[in-house]
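User:
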Amino acid sequence: MARIVFDLPARFGFATELQVYISHVNQGGHLDNAQLLSLVSEARLRFFQSLGYREGHVDGTAIVVGDMLAQYKSEAFHGETLRVQMQPADFNRYGFDLVFCMTETSERREVARGKTGIVFIDPATRRVTPIPMAALHQLQRCASMADAPA
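Assistant: Predicted structure:
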């Protein structure tokens, strides 16, 4: 069976920390795959907030998740703190990929990596719309800052 292979950018422009609560854990005692998506969604919300936006209002548009790729690297457990780093990449007219890497903070063990396809929509028509120029410039600035040499 073929496995997903996904390379990460060298650096990330955004990071936030999230706690693994008991409600995130499945009967196997580790982070549930559906709850991984929930944690990535919370990190995405914080990413947009760091840019001064709400997901439902980005310069007059809204965003939706068009697709998601996730590659698990290790288990996460109740009580652990996860650092979620995010980086915008692969821009197109209607959206971009929001690349993420999730690591456990005390051991720096990678838990998961992947990307979420972000699509901009007109909130009135619920149809795909181009990325607003002001948002595009801000997202590209975020992407280029992480690409700059340390």
